[in-house]
Write a structure and sequence with these properties.
Number of strands: 7
CATH superfamily: Gcn5-related N-acetyltransferase (GNAT)
Oligomer: single chain
Number of helices: 4
Strand content: 25-35%
Number of domains: 1
Shape: globular
CATH architecture: 3-Layer(aba) Sandwich
Order of helices and strands: EHHEEEHEHEE
Structural class: alpha+beta
Helix content: 10-25%
Amino acid sequence: MDRGDKVIEISADRARLDLDYCYDFIAQSYWAGGRTRGEFDRSVEMSFPIGAYCDGRQVGFARVVSDQIAIAYVADVFVDPAYRRLGIAAKMLDALHALPDLGRVKRWLLATHDMQPLYRQHGYTDLDDVMMMRLDEDARNRDPLG
């Protein structure tokens, strides 16, 4: 694959998500093996999902589960293997952290077995071998939700 001038677009538009593609990837993952399609669809419906797009198709996915005030949990982050090392996961994290509906969230959590270096670059610290947390001290200074 020519990695030249790839244009990556990150979008929170649910209508653009290719849920078949996302489920096929997630069903094979180490963290969500055994999750049914119905469970996956419900998890997306009950969260704040984003997609990454390149070359006219979806190439990444991530979502956040949150009460929109106290806590947010980042889940199901993946990038298509053919599009890795283009900074897509980092762009998706930046987009999740910038979602207006999550602007007041102070504590961000996630679990990972293998991507700690990426998350550390985005302010997450290790809680143990798997769990990580990011504190957004500026959250309280942002405008309250409507």
